[in-house]
Design brief:
271 residues; Chemotaxis Receptor Methyltransferase Cher, domain 1; Rossmann fold; 2 domains; 7-stranded mixed β-sheet; two-stranded antiparallel sheet
Length: 271
């Protein structure tokens, strides 16, 4: 069965996605919505999007709402994406070798885990005298399960710098020809957690570094301002916020200063 979506139906899903996740779905994304939700409509026996929309707003539909969010949110990532960010993270770690509290990093849209594990490889390799912790969160339960498993196709190894591949002995697993697993020394200090960046946040503490990369491109300006304000509140004085290279904080906040391309710093005394 082939599905089509009317303007009215599409607008309802636009509103749903914005209310649930703060994401503005462009009017050009009709084909994407049809492609990603059609299979679910077939599985549940619905013949149109109006029926499905009514279903996800029915009693006890929380799990189905979660399914819609999983299907409609984009989770594109790979190990050491935007490598210069990780080189700068190494510089930060070199200057933060000692401290009474753990050095804390938040991977705020961690997707299937490659970003969080790239951060962990970097911190574990460079910190000698200080503990470190990573919070890795995402709105999608599905990708978080993949991240927790920590198993990836061998083809993903090519994105990991060779010295890390040697140091952590990242290679094919015995008995497997197409996958490798993240070692315990990399994963042990990572906590994976479901979190909606535009919802209520649990008690997550403060961070030295937050990675918020390629997230704000889906938000309107008021949503960006609100989110970045909340992020600033979670950053320690002198802390850094990493964003995507196609993003900017211009017109979003004046409380941070540029440190590197797509990296901003909280002044030692917060404004």
């Amino acid at each position: 069965m082939e599905f089509d979506i009317s303007d009215d139906e599409f607008e309802k899903f636009q509103t749903f996605l914005f209310q649930e996740a703060g994401i503005r779905l462009s009017s050009t994304k009709k084909t994407l919505v049809i492609a990603r939700l059609s299979r679910r409509l077939k599985q549940l026996g619905f013949t149109n999007f109006t029926q499905y929309y009514s279903h996800i707003h029915g009693v006890g539909a929380a799990n189905e709402k979660r399914t819609v969010l999983d299907l409609l949110t984009t989770n594109e990532t790979h190990f050491f994406r935007e490598i210069r960010h990780f080189q700068f993270l190494e510089e930060i770690a070199a200057n933060e070798q000692r401290g009474a509290t753990p050095f804390r990093v938040w991977s705020a849209a961690s997707s299937t885990g490659e970003e969080a594990y790239s951060i962990a490889m970097t911190l574990n390799y460079h910190f000698r005298f200080r503990r470190w912790e990573i919070l890795a969160s995402d709105i999608s339960h599905t990708v978080l399960e993949i991240a927790k498993a920590g198993e990836y196709p061998v083809s993903a190894l090519e994105k990991i710098p060779q010295h890390f591949r040697r140091h952590y002995k990242l290679e094919n697993q015995p008995g497997k020809t197409n996958t490798f697993s993240i070692p315990a020394e990399v994963s042990r200090n990572i906590r994976f957690q479901h979190l909606n960046l535009n919802g209520n946040w649990p008690m997550i503490g403060e961070f030295d570094v937050i990675f918020l990369r390629n997230v704000m491109i889906y938000f309107d300006v008021p949503t960006k301002r609100k989110l970045v304000t909340r992020m600033i509140e979670r950053l320690r004085p002198g802390g850094h916020l990493f964003i995507g290279h196609s993003e900017t904080l211009h017109g979003v906040t004046d409380k941070m200063e540029a440190a590197k391309p797509a990296v901003y710093r909280i002044p030692q005394q917060k404004k």
